[in-house]
Amino acid sequence: MTHQSQNERVLSFELFPPKTAEGMDKLKLAVERLNSVGPRYFSCTYGAGGSTRERTFATVGWLREQGIETAPHLACIGTEKAEMRDIVGHYIEQGITRLVALRGDMPSGMGRTGIGTFRYANELVAFLREEYGDRFTIEVAAYPEFHPQAPSAQADLENFKRKVEAGADTAITQYFYSAEAYRYFVDECERMQIDVPIIPGVMPITNYNQLARFSDACGAEIPRWIRKRLEAFGDDKDSLKAFGHDVVLELCQQLLEDGAPGLHFYTMNQSGPTLKLWNELGLSQ
Ligand code: FAD
């Protein structure tokens, strides 16, 4: 694994578009605090099939008004090219230069797979490069513990390589709690000449039920010893958060020691858990 110097590290924060005005107020407060430590950029998720389109636009629009570098996510599954042009055109007007290009997971009952629609993220990356050249830095997703639908680890790596060959500049991983899984993945990518920075996605642990639900859906493993301890805390939220913080802090320390080129925090629109990690890792540059 090649090592990255501290100043070259890409440190970023992910947000999701709130559903309510109250949620938006909370997001604004969280962003104010998170932005004060100087991340490279914020990203904002997008619901596949356009389910959050207007809310993602509103969140990205507000971030841009604050002069914050923002990377909107694009989820392409079932989306017509004309619609993708509309969305990207909107972002060009807002001065966006970075995009996270994804396939997404179609909500059940919303399957659209007509002609002109995208099937996989590599097709979206190729489309963005064909239509917009080098205007955007393009990020894609990577899975150190492998995507749940991949027929094999090797097939998933080859599909990841396809996205890089189509023109992705960098990758953000699904979250994981095993530094070894990341290390093996990066080494395997190096062997396959996949030569983009692979930034670990970091999920703070603050709520066991929510984490267990997400992890079951996305194939991110919570190691048994962590799961058992989290279960045992029951309603003792403070002890759970303290334990969760220690686990994730140690993971991040290990990742940075191993030469990870940055960290991407899944903030869940909360500043506290991420900033506690940030400060204890000494990430302010
Ligand atoms: P792909 O890279 O297309 O891969 C999907 C699956 O298909 C994999 O199993 C892969 O091995 C296989 N595959 C890929 N290409 C091919 C091919 N050409 N032929 C055959 N098989 C292939 N979801 C959202 O809806 N909105 C978001 O904002 C969002 N943000 C995310 C951010 C990050 C950092 C990550 C890691 C995930 C995010 N997701 C989001 C979830 C993501 O959309 C899902 O994990 C989705 O199932 C896969 O998306 P992908 O871009 O990785 O897909």
UniProtKB/TrEMBL annotation:
<dbReference type="GO" id="GO:0035999">
    <property type="term" value="P:tetrahydrofolate interconversion"/>
</dbReference>
<keyword id="KW-0285">Flavoprotein</keyword>
<keyword id="KW-0274">FAD</keyword>
<comment type="similarity">
    <text>Belongs to the methylenetetrahydrofolate reductase family.</text>
</comment>
<comment type="pathway">
    <text>One-carbon metabolism; tetrahydrofolate interconversion.</text>
</comment>
<dbReference type="InterPro" id="IPR003171">
    <property type="entry name" value="Mehydrof_redctse-like"/>
</dbReference>
<dbReference type="InterPro" id="IPR029041">
    <property type="entry name" value="FAD-linked_oxidoreductase-like"/>
</dbReference>
<dbReference type="GO" id="GO:0009086">
    <property type="term" value="P:methionine biosynthetic process"/>
</dbReference>
<comment type="pathway">
    <text>Amino-acid biosynthesis; L-methionine biosynthesis via de novo pathway.</text>
</comment>
<keyword id="KW-0486">Methionine biosynthesis</keyword>
<dbReference type="Pfam" id="PF02219">
    <property type="entry name" value="MTHFR"/>
</dbReference>
<dbReference type="GO" id="GO:0071949">
    <property type="term" value="F:FAD binding"/>
</dbReference>
<protein>
    <recommendedName>
        <fullName>Methylenetetrahydrofolate reductase</fullName>
        <ecNumber>1.5.1.54</ecNumber>
    </recommendedName>
</protein>
<keyword id="KW-0028">Amino-acid biosynthesis</keyword>
<keyword id="KW-0520">NAD</keyword>
<dbReference type="GO" id="GO:0005829">
    <property type="term" value="C:cytosol"/>
</dbReference>
<keyword id="KW-0560">Oxidoreductase</keyword>
<dbReference type="GO" id="GO:0106312">
    <property type="term" value="F:methylenetetrahydrofolate reductase (NADH) activity"/>
</dbReference>
<dbReference type="InterPro" id="IPR004620">
    <property type="entry name" value="MTHF_reductase_bac"/>
</dbReference>
